[in-house]
Structures are given as structure tokens and as C-alpha cells.
DNA sequence: TATGAATGAGCTTTCATTCAT
DNA sequence: TATGAATGAAAGCTCATTCAT
């Protein structure tokens, strides 16, 4: 792994677990076994590093997503949705990826970070809309745009509550009821 | 208004708009026309001030909520739920209270703040569980605890997406579909 | 005990155990169950309080000393000296008075405190010289002024080493050898 | 001289003349022509700087001492002791080193500093014990441990009284009488 | 006498960032 | 590419002191 990768990796971990503001460049150096000079050689400043972290994180999450959704084409809409949801819940249970999602919510809800990353956030959101809306569109009588917004929001809410819960959040049970609920609503 | 109130008010405003970490004590002093000494006279440290802000915000939000939920007793479960949800959506549209909700999500997703307020957050969460679960319990065949967790999560998600969306988030439409969906699920 | 006395007592205790610079007026207030206003009503400022503490401490130590040395007149010089020394060692073993001596050494060795109290320190030193010199004068061939200086210094050294030793300083044994040594030197 | 050396040197001078608590990091920076950042880059915190100062002072004092005590081996016990004592008195008369000894007493008698340096103080004390005890051991019928404690205490006392005396302390005369006294006691 | 709110200077420490090597 | 010494602004916080009550 290149020094740049090491730094990025350390930043992801610390931003997620300690928070962006609370993570000092020094701490990242310690974690990455790199020098301050190296950090500022590869990233113009802390804000650039933040953007790089966000981009890399999105890549990682998508890499997993893409590979799974490849074999989905032949299924019915409700099945495709169930599949997508299962995959999302799966991925946020993964301890490795849990951190990325946690970091995501930090970014969303912190005014300073959010405005620094607004463009990237919007891109990401559009990507999600693009994967849900076509599915929801196949169900007649639904305003698929609103439904897609709502679905994204619901997933976000469950994710957030799960990710930041201290102890025993019943994610598995909620996942099952949530998917079942959508099956019912979609008339499957 | 006492100096303590001035400080608290300034902190509420700045924490909500700028974020906790980005708000310096100096900024609060400027805003409140108070000295640093005064801040630390009334609040042991910045964390204590954060707690005071969190508590005060919860009070403000609840003051509105309580008055509304007074006339709910005679209604059926689905109606009571619809009422509750409408009130929540109403309150987070209020521009004054919007900021408090935004701050809430900041607190939830920032590790440092969250752990400083964990006890208060847990209390709040339990209060929400206690208002939803009895309603959901009236619908047979549902695991009302899991359902209450899910409902809270869904509301959180919609709130978060609305609160931090830049421009034109279709909150009203989502609200309607969301309430309708629950009516369907509850068999009303 | 009057509030002024309470404050003085609290100051003595804290100055001795925590050090003058490390002891805040607030800490004294807590300890004395008094308000800041009360402290500054009775003592013009922290330096005046320091002086008052030093004076009061000297009084307390002397009160004990005077009562003991009253019955000394008939004795021989070596006996009078032994008596004096025993009394001094006695008094610094007393846990109550230990603090006063500790405070004394702090004052002596801290440039800032020392210069604030120089006049009182000089008075005190002269008092000690006046009690040792007459005794040492009775021994021919001794330069009693130098001998008195030396004796004071030796006592100070033993006191300091004892007072600030963490655990098991052999004060009793040193006291015995020290007194015996002086008996030998005085030809008793 | 490296910046670290400059800072250490400035700290040594200011701690000795103004006292540890009264010396602010800012003052050290001014004195050393360094920035605050530089101070905390080289020393974790003010306490670490204090430790470094203490260690460096001990080195300076020992450098002088070691060179002198080299030619002592062939002498008798009383002569070796006289030699040691003379060297100690010599070294504390040196205006350069006087400050370091003064600082030493500050450290001893200030609870906060003392506890921050307890381990180093203990080491130092043990070293002194190890140089006095073997000499005192050669005189039969003496409890050499107690005697060594006492001797150290006496030297400390003389040193302290001399170092903090305003004007005309008869150090030379006391030195002579003190050494003579020990010669007598050791039966030389 | 006594209270404690309020002040503001100053403290130690942190931090992003720069730059000579 | 990489290092880490150095900077200086700004942070949170402490503290002696004042003053209206």
C-alpha cells in the first residue's frame, strides 16, 4: 500500500471513529506511520483530505454494491428491491464498512463538512435515486420520485439508528419487517 | 433575560448553525455580549454547556408537542398515530425548530458529542419508544418493539433528509404517503 | 470560629498542602465555606492573605514554644539546648504543625513569596538567633554567631528532609544523634 | 545551539530566578526566541519541560563534582569527607550554579513540583546516600545510614540558608566549623 | 458583613500549515 | 517523495479581583 493510501486509510478510520474536527493531522500521521510533510504533499490541506476520504469511501461502498446487483436483471420489481435492500443492510453490518456509513452521517449532519462536500453529496444522492426509482416506477399509482425519496430516507434512518446505537439494536428483525412491508406495499 | 440565559441562547443558535466543534467560546461570548469568565461561571466547561443546550432544546420541542397531543385520547390507534406523525412533521417544518432538529442529528452522528450526551440521548429515545409502542401494540401480530424502533428510524431518516436538503425536498408529499402507508399497514 | 478565622485556616491548610500558587481563591472559598466577597472583604488581596497566613503560623508555632521554654531557666547551657531542640523536633512531628513548617519552607525557597514576606522572614530568623545564641555563647572558644547560624541551618535541613520525605524518614534516630552530637561538642 | 537547547536554557534560567509556577511558557518563548509551538514540539507539556530542566541541572552540577572527586581514592575517611564537603560548598558558591541549587530547593518544598519529580528526586537522594554512607561506615559505633541522612540534611540546611539569605551569610565560616566538627566527631 | 455574578487578562495547550533538508 | 522542526493563531479554561445587592 502506498504512503498516500496509508494516509487515506488512516484518515477514514479516524474521521469515522473520532469525528473530523476531533481528528488532528498529527493523529493521522501517527496512525498512518507517515510524516506531516507526507500528508501535505499528497493532500493540499485538511479539506482536500476530507474530500478524498469521501470519494474513496463512496468507491468502496459502490464496489460492493455493483458486484451484487449485476445478476439482478431477470427478477421482478419487488424481488429486485428486496435484493437491493438486503444488499444494503448486509453491507452496513460489515464492521469494515460500518465505519464508512458512520462517517457518511457525520458529513451529512455537520454544516461545515456538508457545505465542503455538497457537490459530492448531491452526486451520491442522485445515484441512489437512480437505482431505486426505476424499480418503484414499475408499480402503478405510485409517484415514484416521492417514493424513492421516502425509501432512501427510511433506509438512512434505520442505518443511522443502527450505526450509532450503543449496544443491541435489532437490525436483523427490522430488516425483515422492512422488506416484508415493502413487499406488501408493492403487492408482491 | 439573565446573562446565563443569554449565553445559553447564543450557544443554542451557534451550535445549531455552525456546529458544536466549530463554535468557539469566544464566538458565544460575542453573540451573548458576555465575558469568557461568565460562560465558565455558569457552565463548568464546554461539554456542560452542550448538555444544557441539548436539554433546553428538548424542552422547547416538547413544549410544542405536549400541547398538541393533549386532545388525542379518544381516538383509534391508527388515528392517534397519524396525529402524532402529523405533529412531528409540523414541528420540524417550523423554521425556528428546524435548527434544533438539525442540531439533534449533529449530536447523534458525531462520536464525541454523542458520548458526552449518551445518557440524555438514551432518555429521549426511550420517551419516543414509550409514545409509539403503545399505539403499535394495538395491532395484533406485530412485534411492537421492533416496529417502534423501525418507525422511529423511518421518521429520523425523513427528518434528516429534509432538514439537510439544500432546496426543494418534497416533505409534504412524503409525509402524506408515509402516513397513508402506516394507515394501510395498521389495517385502518 | 469567625469567618475570617475560617478563611485563614483554610488558606493555611491549602497553601501548605497544595502550594501558594496552586491554591486558588475559589479553592479557599470552598474549603472555608465562604464566598469570594468575604475573602476580599477580610484580606485586601491574595498577597495580604499570604502575609496573614505567615503571621498566624508563626504565632501558633511560638505559642507552643513559649510555654515549654518557660521552665528552662535553672538548667545548664547544654541542657537548655537539648531541651530547646527536643521541643522543636517534637513540634514538627505534630501532624497539625507539620503543615506550618512545610509552608515555611515553601515560602523560603520561592523567590516570589520570599520577597513578599522578606521583612517577616527576617524577624523570625532574628527570633531564632536570639534563642540559640545566648546558649551557645556560654561555651568558650565558640564564635556563637556563626554557631547559631549553623545550628539553625542544621535544624532547617533536618526539618525539610523529614517534612517532605514520602515515607519512613528516621526522624527520631536523627534527633537523638543530633542532640547527642551537640552534647559532645558542648563538652557536656 | 539547537532550538531545543535554547528553550531548555531559557527554562533553566527562568525557573531558577522566577520560580516554576511564575514562569509562563510565553516568557520562555521570549527568552529563547522561539515560538510556543516549538516548546510543545520538543516537550510534551510544561511538566515534561520541568523534568528536562531538573535532569539537565543535575548533570551540570555533577559534571563539576565528578572531575573533582576523581583524585580522592587514597585518602582516609575523614579526609575524603572533608574533601567532598569542600567541593559541595565550593560548587554552591559559584554564582552560575547557585541558581541551580536554589531551584532545587524550590522543587523540594513545592508539593506540586515535588510530586511531578518524585522519582528523580529519589534517585538523586540515593546517589547522595551512596557517596556519604561508605565514608561514615568506616567510623565504628555509628549507624551509618542515620548518620548519612543527618549529614545530607545538615548540608541541605546550610545550603538553603546560604542560598536564600539576602546579604551577608557567613558561609565560609560555617563551612570551616562544620568540617572541623565532623573531623572531631570522626576522631581525626 | 457577606454573597456570587461578572470581568478580562493571561494561562497551557492544540493545530493546520510551511519549509529547509 | 518524505521528514519533522518551526510557526503563530486560536482554542478551552483559570484566576484574582470588582461590584451591585
Task: Describe what this molecule looks like in 3D.
The first copy, chain A, is built from nine helices and no strands. Chain A has 188 residues and is mainly alpha-helical. The mean pLDDT of chain A is 89. Helix content of chain A is 80%, strand content 0%. Chain A is elongated and about 60 Å long. The first copy, chain A, has helices spanning 3-18, 25-32, 36-42, 46-69, 77-93, 95-109, 111-137, 144-164, 171-185. In chain A, helix 6 (95-109) crosses helix 8. Chain A binds chain B through residues 17-19, 21-22, 102, 105-106, 108-112, 114, 118, 122, 143, 145-147, 149-150, 152-162, 164, 166, 169-170, 173-174, 177-178, 181, 184-185, and chain B through 17-19, 21-22, 102, 105-106, 108-114, 118, 122, 143, 145-147, 149-150, 152-162, 164, 166, 169-170, 173-174, 177-178, 181, 184-185. Chain B binds a DNA duplex (21 and 21 nucleotides) through residues 2-4, 24-26, 34-42, 45-46.
Summarize the structure.
Four copies of one chain form a homotetramer. Chain A has 188 residues and is an all-alpha fold.
Amino acid at each position: 500500500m502506498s504512503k498516500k493510501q496509508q494516509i487515506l486509510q488512516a484518515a477514514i478510520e479516524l474521521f469515522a471513529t473520532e469525528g473530523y474536527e476531533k481528528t488532528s493531522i498529527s493523529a493521522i500521521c501517527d496512525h498512518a506511520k507517515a510524516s506531516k510533510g507526507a500528508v501535505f504533499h499528497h493532500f493540499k490541506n485538511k479539506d482536500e483530505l476530507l474530500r478524498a476520504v469521501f470519494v474513496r469511501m463512496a468507491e468502496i461502498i459502490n464496489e460492493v454494491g455493483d458486484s451484487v446487483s449485476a445478476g439482478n436483471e431477470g427478477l421482478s420489481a419487488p424481488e429486485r428491491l428486496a435484493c437491493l435492500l438486503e444488499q444494503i443492510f448486509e453491507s452496513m453490518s460489515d464492521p469494515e464498512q460500518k465505519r464508512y456509513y458512520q462517517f457518511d452521517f457525520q458529513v451529512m449532519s455537520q454544516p461545515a463538512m456538508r457545505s465542503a462536500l455538497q457537490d459530492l453529496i448531491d452526486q451520491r444522492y442522485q445515484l441512489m435515486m437512480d437505482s431505486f426509482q426505476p424499480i418503484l416506477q414499475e408499480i402503478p399509482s405510485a409517484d415514484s420520485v416521492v417514493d424513492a425519496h421516502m425509501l432512501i430516507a427510511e433506509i438512512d434512518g434505520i442505518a443511522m439508528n443502527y450505526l450509532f446505537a450503543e449496544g443491541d439494536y435489532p437490525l436483523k428483525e427490522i430488516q425483515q419487517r422492512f422488506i416484508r412491508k415493502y413487499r406488501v406495499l408493492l403487492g408482491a
